[in-house]
Write a structure and sequence with these properties.
The chain is of the alpha+beta class and 504 residues long. It has 19 helices and 15 strands. 37% of the residues lie in helices and 22% in strands. About 10% of the residues have low confidence.
Length: 504
């Protein structure tokens, strides 16, 4: 709603008007006509009306007081971010570990504060170190007053320093060990006790591309999830334990395939953290016959996603198995989701066939919409179908030379509605295996809010070869601290936005 001056017969009237959308068109409706504008001003009624309404708008009262010179102004700095995350930074051991590792170097600036500043900035805003230096001006953060931009650069360089030759044991074939690896190991050791173990390991990867002249060490051309195949990129891998806590991160050259990265990452994980028993959980991008053979040779348990459409055994035999499903209801975001699962064993391989009934209905509706649109496009001629992948999978070319809808393909596609298939050697029931696999959302880099800041960054590389290692080192420290976001589960996801409003 808003005030509007309406002129009629040479006289001006003041009205309260509301915008409404009717049938896709915005229309204005007069709520009230307050009277002639001249009379309202002379009588003081308009002033009294505005002051009365301002009681319910704190910002209007403050703005009015400042405009009248009745208020004293002073700069305000936000305190919520540091107030909460400083405590969590200490409780997770991040502060103690950074101070311990930096103690022998005797830096001439508070290095731990520089690392904390960059981590806090990435939790609340995201961006480069230069952006972090500007961002901190609006926040009250203890111990960062003397820090300059060059101190943030030096802190990143310190985190990405390559370790000595005798400390390179356990390095992957893709990248050397650096100081951030020691930091991850120290953090894991601090929370480890006699009963600590990593029964489950969730792993996911994504690509991040370079802008500028960076990426001399890790930058390669490869399959880009950011749709930038023209730029050098690197691969970021994240590994979480069964409780959703980050264990470590890895950075590899941009041309590293997912299927070839799982085994080196698992081998390094077991060696770094002295883990014997582990169950690897990864999505369908990680699976291959060689990968599964290597996991079984190491006597490791696994739960891996399967490409049910391209795997002939799964497509033709596993999905058609007549065994009954076991139903299961899962509450997610206060909504019950209807699942069902069953185990199918073929040729010594154990598969878990899962079905989400809500997704099943969505897939069926989407296919129906595609077929309806396809019928309309077919009437326009074959040229209207060129380049549309959604149409292509339901087309056939009869003897007359013109395209037509292939009903057999549409019926075949229906059996994939809401279905996802797992392959496992773990002695878990179908429902247990499905629930474990569903926990992969906690590490899905491309979709979860946890790393949405990171995914939006472009890496502005510099001429130094360790540029990528510096970037990786800082983000690894930040991601460990990012575990604090999950203190209250889903309820804490919006926490930073609310904390950002607290100022003093």
């Amino acid at each position: 709603m808003f005030f509007r001056k309406k002129t009629s017969g040479g006289r001006a009237y003041l009205q309260i008007v509301e915008n409404r959308r009717e049938d896709g068109v915005v229309r204005q409706q007069v709520i009230a006509t307050l009277g002639r504008l001249e009379d309202l001003r002379q009588s003081g009624q308009l002033e009294r009306l505005l002051r009365s309404g301002a009681r319910f708008a704190d910002k209007a009262i403050v703005v009015g007081a400042v405009a009248d010179g009745e208020a004293t102004t002073s700069p305000a700095r936000r305190i919520g971010a540091a107030l909460v995350f400083e405590r969590l930074w200490q409780e997770t051991g991040c502060r103690a570990v950074v101070e311990s590792l930096a103690g022998s170097r005797q830096h001439d600036f508070p290095l731990e504060r520089a690392v904390f500043l960059t981590v806090l900035h990435r939790l609340f805003s995201g961006g480069s170190d230069r952006a972090a230096d500007r961002w901190r001006q609006d926040y009250r953060i203890e111990g960062v007053e003397r820090l300059g931009l060059h101190h943030l650069y030096r802190a990143m360089g310190w985190l990405g320093e390559e370790l000595a030759e005798h400390q390179q044991a356990g390095a992957t074939p893709f990248a050397p060990r650096c100081l951030k690896d020691v930091m991850e190991e120290e953090l894991f050791a601090r929370r480890r006790d006699l009963f600590s173990t990593i029964d489950l390991v969730f792993m996911d990867t994504t690509s991040l591309y370079f802008e500028g002249a960076g990426g001399q060490t890790l930058g390669r051309r490869g399959f880009s999830k950011d749709h930038r195949p023209d730029l050098n990129q690197m691969i970021l891998a994240v590994l979480l334990d069964g409780d959703g806590r980050p264990v470590c991160t890895e950075m590899w050259p941009g041309n590293t395939a997912d299927v070839g990265s799982l085994i080196p990452a698992v081998d390094r994980l077991r060696k770094r953290f002295s883990i014997n028993r582990v169950c690897v959980v990864a999505d369908r991008g990680m699976i291959s016959a060689e990968t599964i053979a290597e996991l079984e040779a190491r006597k490791l348990l696994y739960i891996l996603g399967v490409r049910e459409r391209s795997d002939k055994l799964v497509r033709e035999l596993v999905l058609d198995d007549p065994a009954p499903f076991v139903p299961f209801f899962l509450t997610k975001r206060k909504k019950e989701i209807d699942y069902e699962a069953k185990a199918v064993t073929l040729a010594g391989r154990r598969y878990i066939v899962c079905r989400n009934h809500d997704q099943m209905r969505k897939d069926a509706a989407a296919r129906a919409a595609i077929l309806a649109a396809l019928e309309r496009e077919l009437k326009k001629g074959d040229k209207a179908l060129v380049g549309n992948k959604g149409y292509r999978r339901f087309l056939m070319k009869p003897d007359d030379g013109h395209f037509a809808i292939d009903q057999a393909k549409a019926e075949e596609d229906a059996k994939f509605d809401g279905v996802f298939v797992l392959r496992t050697n773990a002695r878990l029931s179908p429902l247990e295996a499905m629930l474990v696999y569903k926990q992969l959302w906690t590490v899905d880099i491309d979709q979860t809010w946890r790393l949405s800041r990171i995914k939006g960054w472009r890496v502005w590389g510099n001429a130094r070869k360790q540029g990528a290692a510096e970037w990786h080192g800082c983000r690894a420290g930040g991601f460990e601290f990012g575990d604090c976001r999950r203190v209250r589960g889903d309820e804490f996801v919006e926490g930073p936005q609310h904390l950002d409003r607290a100022a003093a």
